[in-house]
Amino acid sequence: xxxxxxxxxxxxxxxxxxxxxxxxKGRTRDEVLAVTAWLTGYTDKxxxxxxxxxxxxxxxxxQAPALNPARxxxxxxxxxxxxxxxxxPLMQEIRYLDKLVDELAKGKPMEKILxxx
Length: 117
Prior knowledge:
The protein is mostly helical.
């Protein structure tokens, strides 16, 4: 799948899949909202509104209110690709969220997922 196809996908269709992935592994929707808010700066209320909007997945990240500077500490692989080596900045932001949800699904504690010192 090309980056442009990913960027043009509906946020309202992609995000519930991330929630479902976490829930299948015993994590909660609220935890997915929390890691998303930490990464992007959106509030829970804004995220809920975006879930019924026409926003694309690319625009969700392009318009993020406050990307967390600590996101650069996110390391590791998603779909066999190391997030720290992704050259397209927008795709890297998308993969950061994928990685955070993966960490949730694997049972990692929230304090470590949110890169608290």
